[in-house]
Amino acid sequence: MRRLISHLGPVIMLMAGLGFAIGAATSLELGSFRRMGPGAFPLLVGAVLSLLALTALIENLRRPMHVDKADPWAVLGVIGGVSAFAFLTPLAGVLPATALAVFATGSVIPEFRWPYRIALALGVSMAVWLIFVLGLGIPFVAIRGL
């Protein structure tokens, strides 16, 4: 049973990656390398996630990883971070939602002190702005009202 549980994480990641990749390839315009369409990025992220999950699954089949006891606070932190992002993005914009999501998710790591949590939240938000808004020109509402 423990061996089956150790395979669960990579299998879930593989299914999510394949779901994103297949969904993007079948329902969104991919565009070209010079002019990427809205489906190009989800396809790329889904393919990379699938490749990483497949690598982890193969490695886990060779040498099963140790399964720790589940941490309910960590689960709540991740659920809270994802929920905060989904709820706040339309209300406040992608940057405040990203900062709060990263902060909420990082808050369940006891070794991760407050200054580092704040720095990580601000850093990831800045990276999202630089990569997606400035670099790729994706028309996100960075901060609602500005």
Automatic annotation (TrEMBL):
Highest rank taxon of the organism: Bacteria
Entry annotated with the keyword Cell wall biogenesis/degradation: no
Transmembrane region(s): 7-28, 40-61, 73-106, 118-143
Protein name: Tripartite tricarboxylate transporter TctB family protein
Entry-linked Pfam families: TctB
DUF1468 domain mapped to chain residues: 11-140
Key words of the record: Membrane, Transmembrane, Transmembrane helix
Organism: Celeribacter neptunius
